[in-house]
Design brief:
The chain is an alpha/beta fold. Helix content is 40%, strand content 18%. InterPro entries: Ergot_Alk_Oxidoreductase, NAD(P)-bd_dom_sf, NmrA-like.
Length: 153
């Protein structure tokens, strides 16, 4: 049996593409979405388990991770990424998650002049400290072309 994968930001461009590709490969997917709408209904229609919640709500993050082994974490360029990352990492530790893929920013670094870039760098550090294997994606055009067909890969 393939491991269950939690995908956050599942109605966004990279999240929705990730959900579809994982389902195509036969993985069980839980799509964590901020609200129920047409986009979340489409995810359910293709076979994802949809869960509505907020990554800034620790109990929601815990509930989302229940029964999951792996995760794709994406948070918008919006305040709260460091808190959301800390709560997500703790929820992952509690279920002994096997692996996390973290969508970060190309400009993430400790001396970044942009607060958003600095917060994404801090988010990376939180995931590193969690003790769960993690891959940090620092996209350039990835965020734009990831929704393309699988043939593009």
């Amino acid at each position: 049996m393939k491991p269950a994968i939690l995908v956050t930001g599942a109605t966004g461009s990279t999240g929705a593409s990730t959900v579809q590709q994982l389902l195509d490969l036969g993985y069980p997917v839980r799509a964590f979405v901020h609200r129920e709408d047409e986009r979340s209904h489409k995810l359910a229609a293709v076979g994802a388990e949809v869960m509505v919640g907020d990554l800034l709500d620790f109990q929601a993050a815990r509930k989302a991770f229940a029964g999951m082994q792996r995760a794709y974490f994406v948070y918008p360029i919006y305040p709260g990424v460091t808190q959301a990352s800390a709560q997500f990492a703790q929820a992952a530790r509690e279920v002994k998650a096997e692996f996390i893929v973290n969508m970060s920013q190309k400009s993430s670094r400790s001396d970044a002049k942009s607060n958003a870039a600095l917060q994404h760098w801090l988010s990376e550090q939180v995931f590193n400290w969690a003790g769960i294997p993690v891959a940090h994606l620092r996209p350039t055009y990835f965020a734009d072309w990831s929704g393309a067909s699988r043939a593009a890969f």
